[in-house]
Amino acid sequence: MKSQLKFLIWIIIIGIGFAGAVLYQKGFFSKDSSENTKPAIKETASTTPADTRVAATSTTVSNQNDKTISIQSIDKSMVGETVSIVGEIINHKDHKNGHVFLTVKDASGEILIPIFADKNINTDTFVTGNQFQFAGNVDEFNGEIEIIPSKQEDIVPTNPITRINEKDEGQLKTISGKIISKYTHPQGHIFITLKVQETGQELEIPLFSSLHPNPDEYPINSEVNLKGKVTVYKNRLQIIPNSLNDLTIIKEGDDSSVSTVKLSAISEADRGKMVITRGQVTDVSEKNGHLYFKLSAGGKNIKTVLFKADSQEIAGRKTRVLNAEKAQFEISVLGMVDVYKDELEIIIDKVLVD
Predict the structure, then answer these.
(1) CA-CA-CA-CA torsion sign (240, 243, 195, 157)
(2) Distance of CA 43 to the CA centre of its chain
(3) pLDDT at 211
(4) What burial class does residue 82 get, using C-beta atoms within 10 Å of its C-beta: 0-12 exposed, 13-18 middle, 19+ buried?
């Protein structure tokens, strides 16, 4: 009987234990169950707003880059922020270390935009008068606010450059280009041929004697900025600057890079080209300060002229030509090939020193 009672008690104990385990697993006896659930809910609730805030911040920055603001609205409190403006370049300065410093203006004010050399940004089209959209970080240097672009895509032209044509006559244009030829007119004018960098168009730039230009200050292959009025003269497009300050050299050229051509190989097809050639001086004559002679080599003679100009260097060139005739030795000259009265002619820019 006792053994049967003990067995019954053990059955009851085991049953109670099993039932308790089941109820415990279902959370009936877990005092902390509700508290353990709440942190999970809080964590989920706090994560979602945090992610939303990050996304909102990213969207705001992107919108700031796309939206332009006025220059006047930029102040020191914005240092480190990325902004975008639209403005016209009113000043361009090259630094000896390869940096370019632009002053840009809009209707509200002006700001400095430095283009640092290590950014590898092509600055060929950044000439006065052209308008761009500039994006970059706001910075302060020596008390001045500036915008610093970091890549080529940060600077976008807003006035695409097109070829100049007769319809532009009378308009004021600002362009950049390279001097590919020049000659001094007998009356002291200098006629420069400029090749526009963006379009490849060639335009004639007359610097009239009234401006007192010095041909030595405009080496061949120089890169320049030009502002002037479009005119048409003898069916040729010209841009006439109002003053010498309207033709600014950005990068001085090197005359030695002009192609060297044998005198015997020069023909009418070379008209308008600058060449370096060599020959012996003969038949020298002088009239009204101009020096006329023939340059001879390889059985060919080409009429050559050195027009007068208000320059000591011109006097030195005359001396070298006269000495070459007297001593009967060859000289090298840099000049423009022309055709005058159906006859080949070389208009000298420089008499080179061997």
Answers:
(1) negative
(2) 53
(3) 93
(4) middle
**Tokens matching residue 333:** 């000259």
Q: How far is CA 125 from CA 63, 89, 226, 242, in A?
A: 27, 10, 12, 22
Who's near 78: CB < 8 A, 6+ residues apart?
Answer: 138
Locate all alpha helices (DSSP H) within the chain, ordered by sequence.
2-25, 33-66, 312-327
Pull the structure tokens for residue 177.
């280009």
With a cut of 70, which residues of the chain have pLDDT below it? Answer: 1-67, 159-161, 309-314, 354
pLDDT digits (tens, 9 = 90+) for 161-197: 678 989 899 998 888 889 988 888 888 889 999 988 7
* Rg, C-alpha atoms of the chain: 39
What is the Cα–Cα distance from 305 to 336, expressed in whole angstroms? 10
Asked if 294 contacts 282 with a C-beta cutoff of 8 angstroms, the reply is yes
Exposed (0-12), middle (13-18) or buried (19+): which is 210, by Cβ within 10 Å? exposed
Calpha distance 152→115 (Å, rounded): 10
Q: Which of 300, 302, 295 is nearest to 351 (CA)?
A: 295
Beta strands 300-306 and 343-352 are: parallel
Threshold 0.85, pTM exceeds: no
Structure-token pair, residue 256: 């030695």
Write down all domains in the chain, each with its CATH number in brackets: 71-157 (2.40.50.140), 166-251 (2.40.50.140), 258-352 (2.40.50.140)
What pLDDT is recorded for position 12?
A: 62
- Are residues 192 and 204 in contact, defined by beta-carbon separation less than 8 angstroms? yes
Nearest to 192 by CA among 162, 236, 158: 236
pLDDT, tens digit (0-9, with 9 covering 90-100), for 85-109? 999 999 999 999 999 999 999 989 9
First vs last Cα of the chain: how many Å apart? 139
